[in-house]
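Lay summary. Proteins are chains of building blocks that fold into shapes, and those shapes determine what they do. In this project we predict the shape from the chain. Here is one chain we studied, written as its sequence of building blocks.
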Amino acid sequence: MKFTLSTVARSLAAHLSGNFPGVTFFEDPNQQGSTVPCMFLQQRYSNLKLQTAGRWLRTIGLDLTYLEDYNRPDMQRLYQEVAETLDLVMETFPYTDGADTGALRTYEREWRIDLDALHYKFEIRVIVHLPEPYNPMRTMDYKEDVTDGG
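And here is the predicted shape, written in a compact code that computers can read:
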């Protein structure tokens, strides 16, 4: 499987659309011309840690942002309802890159309500292999002959 922000965003949108009818999903922050309610996904960080047998643990921090009309009198309650729904459906979600499918587990889930948005932050952790051929070490041809300077 290939992991990109685009494929994660599409997979999340497909997973969440049944729980949030009428919500528009965007792949990234779309400030102009967005109709609310809407959600978009932002990558906050990513890191790699070497594992055994040439595998890498990739940790990707994501922020799923939910926006609603700023002037609603019940905005706080609405954001809390959305956050609680996300808590129920975000432990795992089906993932596809177009060719392969599987399930991704989320970690470190937390949410925060700002004045104008709900931020649902979480991590995904996947074991990856670097594309072949990948060899960061280069070999050098050493001449081991000893000369006496002559």
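What the prediction tells us: Residues 134 and 140 are 17 Å apart (CA to CA).
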